[in-house]
Amino acid sequence: MLSRPEILIVGGGVAGLSLATRLGKSMGKPGKARITLIDKSFSHVWKPMLHCFASGTLSNENDKVNFITQASGHHFEFWPGEVASIDRENREVILSPLLEADGTVVLESRRMKYDTVVIAIGSCANDFGTPGVKEYCMSIDNLVEANAFNEKFRMELLRAFANTSELDIAIVGGGATGVQLAAELHKALEIVGPYNLHAFGKAPPKLHVTLLQSGPRILPAFPESVSAAAQKELEHIGVTVQTNARVAGADAHGFILKDGSYVPAKLRVWAAGVKAPEVTTAYGGLTINRTGQILVNPNLSSIDDERIFALGDCSFIQDDPLPATAQVAGQQAKHLARYLPAWIEHGRKVPGCVFHNKGAIVALGKYNGWAALPGGTVWGGGISHGFSARLAHLMLYRQHQMELFGYYRGLMSCYSDWVETFVRPSVRLD
User: Fold this and answer.
1) d(CA 39, CA 77)
2) Separation CA 32–CA 13 (nearest Å)
3) H or E stretch covering 262
4) Going by DSSP bridges, is the β-strand pair 167-172/360-364 parallel, antiparallel, or unpaired?
5) In sequence order, what are the beta bridge partners of 170?
6) Residue 263 · residue 254 · CB < 8 Å
7) Handedness of CA 273, 274, 279, 282 (dihedral sign)
8) Which one-letter DSSP state was computed for residue 291?
9) In sequence order, which residues have a C-beta less than 8 Å from that of residue 186 and are 6 or more positions away?
10) Do residues 215 and 244 make contact, with C-beta atoms less than 8 angstroms apart?
11) Is-above-0.90 flag for pTM?
12) Could you tell me which residues are beta bridge partners of residue 244?
């Protein structure tokens, strides 16, 4: 062991940043270990809100957590970079060179020693090798991609406005991401309408969103009643929902379906399927499954190396597979934050992590929402919808903020967001 144990956390998503913050308090502050967070970005956003950044209905700086600021206030360190590989024999992670947008090298490749590595790099959309997807489709797996889509969305809206034409958008994937993005795009256009009317003297262009789902219903993780209600709501606001629509390929103008039909779209979004980032194949020969997830024991340690842990979307427990959700990642982060200190300091084995399903929530912008909770009654279980479900979705986000910031700073963040609604546009315009 090193003189002071080195704990490297790779990935600053829901699980990684939560774990770094908690371990910073329990081990970093008293000097029991050196905690270092590694991420290729400089800020964190709550992944279930990425569709709001993509549509432009959320652009507040308060909704991003700067890693440097968080590290400074919570007794851990942050280094920007992407882990290219792991040298398990010498207990080192190798970081790729950090480059500027033009390719200029800012930091050369670096090697960092570790006693324990926790991999929490999340997931990305799975194109299943579908021809044309990588070349012609966008995704919203992270903030960079969400902002890139928003830029394209605003420019295409402007073009459609100037040409008095419609804007066609097709989204592949009827899970929560695709469904919520479809609704949020319509919400954004409703908000921006009065700005266009007063600024340019004419109404905004018509938006035509098509949601393509390969299975028989959207939101397959929810009860059938929720799927049916959500589809009805989407169709009511103008979204075209096609189920049993298997995509055979994509090109620069739309999607080709396996039944031979064609869906034209100026903007094409792929939000179907989940896989771990391809970089897991370079992580020291760790065993991964066919979607790149690292195989772990019930206590979240790799089946190949007890010094390497993986949690959240990039991990897979063979005996008890769990869905790739923020809820799972959050519970696993809390589990490691509780038991890793004793393992590192005293060699006590980390016990198995038991997932407690607290249900699922989906919110269709301002239009509707559903909460499917375990049990038999609405508040103890069952299904609720409408304002209460949308409020519950918002409260999950606020709870995440308070876990990272602390109670009082979290409350101040809520207050700051409320104040800004009076002075800033409610949709991104530039």
Assistant:
1) 11
2) 24
3) strand 262-264
4) unpaired
5) 210, 268
6) yes
7) negative
8) T
9) 207, 209, 237, 238, 239, 365
10) yes
11) no
12) none
- 116 phi/psi in degrees, rounded to 5: -140, 135
* Summary mean pLDDT of the chain: 87
Token pair, residue 175, equals 């899970």
Rounded-to-integer distance, Cα 24 and Cα 21, Å: 5
- Write the CA distances from 91 to 7, 114, 299, integer angstroms: 11, 6, 21
Distance CA 103, CA 106 (A): 9
Query: CB neighbours (10 Å) of residue 404?
Result: 22
Q: How many CA atoms lie within 13 A of 327 on its CB side?
A: 13
Backbone angles phi, psi at 251, to 5 degrees: -135, -170
The residue whose two tokens read 């967001």 is 417
The 10s digit of each residue's pLDDT in 133-170 is 999 999 999 888 998 999 999 899 888 887 888 899 99
Give me the half-sphere count of Cα atoms (radius 13 Å) on the Cβ side of residue 134: 5
The DSSP 8-state label assigned to residue 270 in this structure reads E
Whole-number Å distance between alpha carbons of 31 and 18: 19
Strands 308-310 and 294-296: unpaired
Tokens of 306: 């007890």
pLDDT per position as a tens digit, 18-63: 999 999 999 999 999 999 999 998 988 888 888 888 988 876 666 7
Residue 107 Cα to chain centre, angstroms: 27
Q: Which residue has the tokens 């999340």?
A: 122
H-only helix segments in 212-281: 224-237
End-to-end CA distance of the chain: 51
**124-125 and 167-172 as β-strands: parallel, antiparallel, unpaired?**
unpaired
Helix (H, G, I), strand (E, B) or coil at 183: helix
Closest CA to 210 of 251, 248, 179, 177: 179
Q: What is the largest CA-CA distance in the chain?
A: 71
**Neighbour order of strands in the sheet with 262-264:** 247-251, 254-257, 262-264
Tokens of 294: 């690292």
Which residues on neighbouring strands pair with residue 251, listed in sequence order? 254
- Tokens for 118, please give them: 């926790």
Joined tokens for residue 392: 């519950």
Give the separation between CA 203 and CA 197, rounded to whole angstroms: 5
